Amino acid sequence: MSWNTFGRCLRVTTFGESHGPAIGAVVDGCPPGIPLSEADIQPWLDKRRPGQNRHMTQRREPDKVKILSGVFCDDIITGQVTTGTPIALLIENTDQRSKDYAAIRDRYRPGHADYTYEAKYGVRDYRGGGRASARETAMRVAAGAVARRIIPQVEIRAALVQMGPHGIERDNWSWAEVENNPFFCPDAKAARVWEDYLDGIRKSGDSVGAVVEVVASGAPAGWGAPLFARLDQDIAAALMSIPAAKGVEIGAGFAAAALKGSENADEMRIHDGQVHFTRNNSGGILGGISSGQDIIARMAVKPTSSILTPRRTITRGGEEVEIVTRGRHDPCVGIRAVPVAEAMVALVLADHYLMHRAQTGRG
Fold first, then answer.
1. Model pTM?
2. Over the stretch 136-170, which tens digit does the pLDDT of each residue have?
3. Residues sharing a CB contact under 8 Å with residue 159, sequence separation 6 or more, in sequence order
4. Which long-range contacts (CB under 8 A, 24 or more apart) does 118-126 make?
5. How do beta strands 268-271 and 245-250 pair?
6. Range 139-154 burial, b when 16+ CB lie within 10 A, else e
7. Nearest residue to 266 via CA among 252, 245, 255, 254
8. Nearest to residue 141, comparing CAs of 107, 186, 91, 183?
9. Strand stretches in 281-325, DSSP E
């Protein structure tokens, strides 16, 4: 089994490689009658698209999505809607430079999946990493756009809250600011610091990691399940499936270990007949089930492994050598991970919405 499929009720299978002719996804389990067109998907892909500024890889991919199946439109129906059958999505690759990788075809990049892929399969696509490339995540964003149409009542947003050692000031948080800088940063002051910092990292031929925070607002209490289909479990698994992800926390996360029970427990009140929590250390999930609060998750992203800084490695034949990776790479892959993290959380929430509806008859 290659495990290229994600989800239970809403199942997504991605296919394709970084330097192949195209990448794609099949979304199965989407309910019928939901308005869906390529225009509903493209804006989310545009957020992730490479080559938009000097802080991203300069690979120029338009990432124009095509819907090949699963939708229908005629004179009786107003607009194009889903049919309940598998939705096939396709993006053509148009700007591959496979020659950039010729020098490393027999050398394993430290920190990359080169060695482990070959150890598992006995063969690897060295051109951009094949399936291990972040290129595959474009299809997750496309599938996530479909998921958003299933749960329009939920708003899913993400931001970069740390780059390298430089974090944001929480008091400066502005969702509007996320759209005003190339880092998806909610703190205008921090974004200015990051610009100079990342320029230095890029010019030195190195890379840096980051932390992405995802906030989902509008999910009601009750989505999820105890034990083996916990909502926080599935969110953590979804975010950890993103290339370069190395850690996930929900709500207070690891900081909860330093709190006392009296500090960590989110007290409850009734306000205007509705349940109100005084804090949200739980990240909107209790016992694996949503509480109705904002669902909050953070993901740590490691530095890009393909860098110009020389490092020691080995060849396929066991020879100890030095490696320098040329080509077009992100100095901070965490930037483009922001829309990917949003998409993965959207897929999880849409899946759990459908599971909840199937079990209880309620949305």
1. 0.94
2. 999 999 999 999 999 999 999 999 999 999 999 99
3. 175, 178, 184, 185, 186, 212, 213, 338
4. 118/316, 125/17, 125/18, 125/19, 126/101
5. unpaired
6. bbbbbbbbbbbbbeeb
7. 252
8. 91
9. 285-286, 289-291, 295-301, 311-314, 320-323
